[in-house]
Amino acid sequence: MKTIIHKRDTRGFANHGWLQANHSFSFAGWYNPERIHFGALRVMNDDIIAPKMGFGTHPHDNMEIITIPLKGVLKHRDNMHDVWEEVLPGEVQVMSAGTGVQHSEINGSSTEYLSLFQIWIIPEEQGVAPRYDQKTFKAENRNGKLQTLVTSIKDTDSNSLKIHQDVKISRIDLNEGEVFNYNLKSKNHGVYVMNISGKYNLGETTLSSRDAVGISETDSFTVNTTEATELLFIEVPMISL
């Protein structure tokens, strides 16, 4: 089994006043030649956005974008619908940029900070038709068991959101002292595990809140929690750029 440890304090950080951004991989003004991507996972940003602030209209193309609000209210608008959509904690948003899309993202609250993960996945096909979707995932359905959030548009799982890549993005909430075994889709896949909160052991390595680890070249791995822990699994093909 191959592992790449990304401790929380090794991430890129940018404080723009209205935006505090943590980058697991090279992004914007932060560049680390050893942290460009993990397989098809290109961006894993952990952002905090001030009340009423956000990103004005800007373009994307040929990227699969997944947004997971953790706290607060996200409001999204794009040129496919031109209406503001709210995305709340417990919901997940996906957008296939494909041939090109223009969108805006803002904090929909005038008083509360917005905390979210934004994930970019390199698509398996270029030039697809842009699409948008969002879905609610109940927290009680991931207590002690894996809750699948996002899979390939070719996958038959009707309960997950869809993107143009052979991925499996999932969450689980574990109690202190629980043991969980994760099985990978194939030997050509790897999993980037973000610890949303809590603490667990992976072999001899202890990972705390916002630490992450990339795991590949294995069929499965086991996590052992030492306190209540929330984990996000981003399983992707281990492609080369």
TrEMBL record:
Highest taxon above the source species: Bacteria
Gene Ontology terms, MF aspect: metal ion binding
Cofactors (names): Fe cation
Co-factor note (free text): Binds 1 Fe cation per subunit.
Quercetin 2,3-dioxygenase C-terminal cupin domain sequence ranges: 150-236
A Pfam entry, by short name: Pirin
Domain Pirin N-terminal as annotated: residue spans: 10-121
Binding site for Fe cation: H58, H60, H103, E105
Family: Belongs to the pirin family.
Protein name: Pirin N-terminal domain-containing protein
